């Protein structure tokens, strides 16, 4: 598992400049070892220089303890190691200091300059010391030995720690880059999940709105006609038995048609639920919501809806319910896309339903125009009769019919206008592109 940047920041619980207590303990241990090494090397240095031994040991302890600052000031540690190199002290400090310097974020030119100084200092000190040993007779090898020993020692004390530090620093930067990329991807995934949830919620709302609109179209018109016929039955129950029989048959037919359409709609929704159950087993919740809404919307659209060929039958049903309605068609009829015909039919159906609800008994005009690139429809009723007149039936209204018509027409890129007329009636007009 990777650690995010926030977790790394939270993990910095060490003292002072250390990120962790473990790092502080490691540096303290290295400083103790370095101090003991420098103190041991300070003993012969003080003796050879004619200084008190205690002074050499104390100087070695102080110099070696500087290693504890290697993470805070690596340049200072390397400079101290270079300064005490002539005394043949601080070898551990030099190695660890160069490694820390190379692994840090300091410019490479500084690392190269200090590594070069350390190499030259080690080369000179080793050469002088080996030369002295040769001159004193302690070593009896050829002239090539002193330069070889000096060069290999200087390289061995500088090159490995610098190369290792460069590798560790590059690896650390790579890991930080990967961690930042992981953080960025995590934020992007979270943002995508939030957007997917928003899309799912929007799709669910669209699904509910569409289903409600379809249910309204299916139920409102036929039930309104059934109520009108039921009122007519009450009015002529004793005066005209034959009309009662005809109206009762019409009520039964409308009720069966409404039930059939409702069954089709509910069957579509049930088939959509099965689809969701299969999809939900393998995809995220937000994706299921989007798929569910899309599938339900497609299934609702696949239901065989009404067409303009049924418009005369629709007007005839309103006329049979006692409405004085006239239908006029302009232009040559031609087939349109199913959604265009269904929307045009629903607009006329809802407009007639509103006449039954709010202007029962008013004369109504239905006009349909087939144009070159569009189809236009208009339903206009005259002023309704005075309240209380014969045939006036009060029907409940949810106030969503006009909103639903406008949404349908606008969804196809059309124009919808509705409002009262100067004569006291009401007009509903819509224009829908033919394609």
Could you walk me through the main structural features you see in this protein, from its secondary elements to its overall organization?
The protein has 435 residues and is α+β, with helices and mostly antiparallel strands. Among the domains are: 5-140, no CATH class; 308-435, Heat Shock Protein 90 (2-Layer Sandwich), CATH 3.30.565. The chain is 67% helix and 8% strand. The chain contains 12 helices and 5 strands. The chain has helices spanning 5-11, 21-49, 53-65, 74-83, 91-103, 108-135, 145-236, 241-279, 285-302, 311-320, 338-358, 401-411, and strands at residues 325-330, 364-370, 374-381, 415-420, 426-433. A 5-stranded mixed beta sheet has the order 1-2-3-5-4, with helices on one face. Strand 1 (325-330), helix 11 (338-358) and strand 2 form a beta-alpha-beta unit. It is rod-shaped, with a radius of gyration of 47 Å. The two termini are 55 Å apart.
């Amino acid at each position: 598992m990777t650690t995010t940047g926030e977790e790394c920041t939270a993990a910095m619980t060490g003292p002072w400049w250390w990120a962790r207590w473990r790092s502080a303990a490691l540096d303290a241990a290295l400083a103790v070892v370095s101090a003991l090494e420098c103190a041991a090397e300070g003993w012969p240095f003080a003796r050879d220089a004619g200084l008190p031994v205690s002074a050499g040991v104390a100087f070695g302890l102080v110099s070696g303890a500087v290693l504890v600052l290697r993470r805070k000031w690596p340049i200072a540690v390397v400079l101290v190691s270079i300064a005490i190199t002539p005394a043949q002290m601080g070898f551990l400090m030099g190695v660890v200091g160069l490694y820390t310097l190379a692994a840090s974020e300091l410019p490479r030119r500084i690392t190269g300059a200090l590594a070069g100084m350390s190499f030259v200092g080690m080369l000179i000190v080793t050469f002088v010391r080996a030369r002295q040993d040769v001159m004193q007779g302690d070593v009896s090898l050829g002239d090539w030995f002193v330069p070889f020993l000096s060069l290999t020692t200087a390289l061995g004390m500088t090159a490995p720690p610098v190369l290792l530090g460069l590798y560790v620093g590059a690896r650390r930067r790579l890991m930080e880059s990967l961690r930042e990329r992981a953080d960025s991807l995590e934020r992007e995934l979270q943002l995508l999940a939030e957007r997917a949830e928003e899309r799912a919620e929007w799709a669910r709302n669209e699904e509910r709105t569409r289903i409600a609109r379809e249910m309204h179209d299916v139920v409102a018109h036929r039930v309104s006609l059934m109520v009108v016929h039921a009122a007519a039955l009450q009015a002529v129950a004793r005066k005209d038995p034959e009309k009662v029989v005809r109206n009762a048959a019409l009520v039964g037919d409308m009720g069966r048609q409404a039930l059939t359409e409702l069954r089709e709609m509910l069957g579509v929704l049930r088939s959509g639920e099965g689809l969701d159950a299969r999809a939900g087993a393998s995809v995220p919740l937000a994706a299921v919501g989007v798929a569910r809404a899309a599938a339900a919307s497609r299934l609702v659209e696949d239901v065989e809806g009404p067409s303009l060929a049924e418009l005369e039958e629709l007007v005839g049903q309103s006329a049979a319910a006692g409405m004085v309605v006239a239908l006029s068609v302009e232009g040559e009829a031609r087939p349109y896309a199913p959604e265009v015909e269904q929307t045009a039919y629903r607009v006329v159906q809802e407009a007639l339903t509103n006449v039954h609800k709010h202007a029962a008994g008013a004369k109504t005009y239905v006009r349909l125009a087939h144009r070159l690139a569009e189809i236009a429809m208009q339903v206009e009723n005259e002023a309704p009769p005075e309240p209380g007149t014969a045939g006036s039936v009060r029907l409940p209204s949810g106030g969503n019919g006009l909103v639903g018509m406008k949404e349908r027409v606008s969804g196809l890129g059309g124009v919808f206008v509705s409002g009262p007329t100067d004569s006291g009636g009401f007009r509903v007009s819509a224009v829908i592109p033919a394609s």
